[in-house]
């Protein structure tokens, strides 16, 4: 369970960046943590950091609990979702629990397989979440909701308890009419990569 502080934090409270990279990447042929020699992982970390997130937390799973084996830089916090095989929600819960142990009052969620989403997009969505009463914002690419998603701490417990299987935060977020959608298709495609480029043609 995520423990949420009783006091109301300032709207400009710190934001933790969560890189969700626990899956085995079955369709891709390898864990996406290792894709392109780790370039996707490094890109996600850089986008979150340069977009205003601290700390950045990488949620590991299929590659095991050793950050070095996954190619995670030494200066990045990691958490291992031991139950990663049960679905995306396992890594989301692990990430939220890790964020709750920091001073963060927002999280910016980024999957590892959207490598062209950069810091400009992260900063834009984070600013929108901080300005919104709901504290909820997500990127939109060509009318399609994507990542990052930024979530104020007041929603974490509800997401933690409702997440199941591969739904992640989807069930909870789809129920919210107060989500702010932020157009980002001028800076990225937002495409996630489920299969290698050579087989996607």
How does this model look, in words?
- The chain has 201 residues and is an alpha/beta fold.
- The chain has a single domain, classed as Alpha-Beta Complex (Spore Coat Polysaccharide Biosynthesis Protein SpsA, Chain A).
- 26% of the residues lie in helices and 20% in strands.
- The chain has a seven-stranded mixed sheet with strand order 3-2-1-4-6-5-7, sandwiched between helices.
- A hairpin with a 2-residue loop joins strand 5 and strand 6.
- The longest helix has 13 residues, at 119-131.
- GO terms for molecular function: nucleotidyltransferase activity.
- Pfam families: NTP_transf_3.
- It comes from Nocardia puris.
- This is Nicotine blue oxidoreductase.
Keywords:
201 residues, alpha/beta, Spore Coat Polysaccharide Biosynthesis Protein SpsA, Chain A, seven-stranded mixed beta sheet, 7 strands, 26% helix, globular, disordered N terminus, MobA-like_NTP_Trfase, nucleotidyltransferase activity
- Proportion of strand residues: 15-25%
Just give the CATH class: Alpha Beta
Kindly state the number of beta strands: 7
User: What share of residues is helical?
Assistant: 25-40%
GO molecular function: nucleotidyltransferase activity
InterPro entries: MobA-like_NTP_Trfase (IPR025877), Nucleotide-diphossugar_trans (IPR029044)
Organism: Nocardia puris
Domain MobA-like NTP transferase: 17-176
List the helices and strands and how they pair.
Layout (H helix, E strand, L loop, with lengths): L14 E6 L18 H12 L5 E5 L16 E4 L7 H12 L6 E6 L7 H13 L4 E6 L2 E9 L3 H7 L7 H5 L5 E4 L13 H4 L1
Parallel strand pairs: 1-2, 1-4, 2-3, 5-7
Antiparallel strand pairs: 4-6, 5-6
């Amino acid at each position: 369970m995520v423990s949420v502080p009783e006091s109301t934090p300032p709207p400009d409270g710190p934001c933790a960046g969560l890189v969700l990279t626990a899956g085995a990447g079955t369709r891709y042929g390898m864990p996406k943590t290792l894709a392109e020699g780790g370039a996707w992982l490094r890109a996600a970390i850089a986008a979150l950091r340069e977009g205003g997130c601290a700390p950045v937390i990488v949620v590991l799973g299929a590659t095991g609990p050793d950050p070095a084996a996954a190619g995670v830089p030494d200066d990045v916090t990691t958490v291992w979702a031991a139950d990663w095989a049960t679905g995306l929600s396992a890594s989301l819960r692990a990430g939220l629990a890790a964020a709750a142990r920091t001073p963060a009052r927002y999280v910016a969620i980024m999957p590892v397989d959207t490598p062209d989403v950069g810091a400009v997009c992260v900063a834009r969505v984070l600013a929108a979440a901080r300005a919104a009463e709901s504290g909820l914002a997500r990127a939109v690419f060509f009318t399609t909701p994507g990542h990052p998603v930024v979530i104020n701490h007041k929603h974490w417990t509800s997401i933690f308890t409702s997440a199941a299987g591969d739904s992640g935060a989807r069930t909870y977020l789809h129920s919210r009419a107060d989500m702010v959608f932020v157009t980002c298709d001028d800076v990225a495609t937002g495409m996630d990569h489920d299969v290698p480029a050579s087989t996607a043609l």
